[in-house]
Amino acid sequence: MTEETMKIAVMPGVRQVEIREVAKPRPGPGEVLIKIKACALCTWEQRTYTGAAKGYFPLAGGHEYSGEIEEIGEGTETELRVGDRVTAGIAGCGKCYYCHRGEETLCKLRFASARQYGDLSGPMGLAEYKVAPLEKIYQLSNELPFVEGALTEPTACVVHAQRRLGIQLAEDVLVIGAGTMGLLNMLVAKARGARVMVSELDPQRCQRAAELGADLVFNPKQVDMPQAVKEATHGHGAEVVIVAIGNGMANKQALQAVAPLGRVMMFAAAHPSEELCVDPNWLHRDQVVITGSVSGDVHGFRVASKLLSDRIIDVSPLIEKTMPLSEIEEAFELAIRPDTYRVVLTM
Ligand SMILES: [Zn+2]
Ligand SMILES: [Zn+2]
Prior knowledge:
By secondary structure, this protein is α/β, with parallel strands linked by helices. The protein is built from eleven helices and 15 strands. One zinc ion binds next to helix 4.
């Protein structure tokens, strides 16, 4: 019997991507085989592709994906059925200090179960199939299009960050940057009942933010943004500031726009990273909290699956283009353009 194979996208180095043929994986006990239908190109894959962030080559990227269960490993107890729509996300090891604290994003062993194909490593979602352990599987509605289901992971990152911030009904939230992650932050904050202001330099992105429901949009090229935020908030400033772009000026303006007792979230990573200057006396007096967030946790994935499945938020306007896996190179070139939203590959 000849071995079944599948296609997988591999990055051998910076600005290189190719399709390879590898053995189709089979699920073992406690695992499922996902037939991947859609996978989005996240900022992390884009930065690895351009060389802006350090890459571990050859890399088999793709961590924002959705698909359907094709096979359930023998002897696996689950309510899931073959044909169910799913996405796979985070699961901590359950045994370490951070997992015991319910903080799976800090688990050192959370990638330990990743399958290896010879010299390939990575999340391997840019492929036709993937085996994942049951604890990483999150069910999606069978009515949710796969391309939208692929955005569960970025939504989970936002849900995780905003739970840390504890955004409350009617709070004034400022999101800096109206890229995919900025707009996702806006949509989730709106769903939490906040009043959301968006700061963005690009006029087209400003318009997109307004169309998708931003209460106020400021372009720092045209207005003194921190001042405009203060004027819109009875002189207080924003109670929550989410910095969704890795940029020194954005960080600086975040600290200027935040209200006393406010919270500032460094949501985006910056490459290169600029140092943040903070006056300790200002922190002392205004009692502002500066924090960060990375990745999605179990709660974030569960809630994100529901937000998308039950159409509590609509992520379809954040999808720039859908392309077949065979056009992966063109897809990367499109995704790395500063003016595009998520590019999604389909299999
Ligand atoms: Zn991502
Ligand atoms: Zn752990």
